[in-house]
Amino acid sequence: MKCNIEELIINSGLKKKYIAEKLNVSVKQLRNYEVGHSLIPIDKAFILADLLNCRVDDLYTLGNELF
User: Fold this and answer.
1) Tens digits of per-residue pLDDT, 35-61?
2) Most-buried pick from 31, 32, 48, 64 (CB within 10 A)?
3) Cβ–Cβ under 8 Å, residues 60 and 1
């Protein structure tokens, strides 16, 4: 599974501090979501998708490693 959160945040033009505040997490935790060290909880995924103007399933891409 490939995490697209970092790319989506960059493309949004929003500041990470602003996004982290909206998600009620630290900027460090947001970074963990971006690089795939932690999976974002589903409730926060919906908030993030709304902020980034995308769908929840856009946050991750399923790779071929499972096939």
Assistant:
1) 989 999 999 999 999 999 999 999 999
2) 48
3) yes
**Per-position b or e across 8-43, b if 16+ CB within 10 A of its CB:** bbeeeeeeeeebbeebebeeebbbebbeeeeebeee
Q: What are the structure tokens assigned to 6, written together?
A: 């970092």
- Reported residue count of the chain is 67
Q: What phi and psi, each to the nearest 5 degrees, are found at residue 2?
A: -105, 130
- Opening angle at CA 52, ends 46 and 55, nearest 5: 50
What the block records as the tokens of 44 is 């926060």
Q: Considering the entire predicted model, what is its pTM?
A: 0.88
Structural domains present in the chain: 2-66 (1.10.260.40)
Q: Token match 């993030």: residue? A: 48
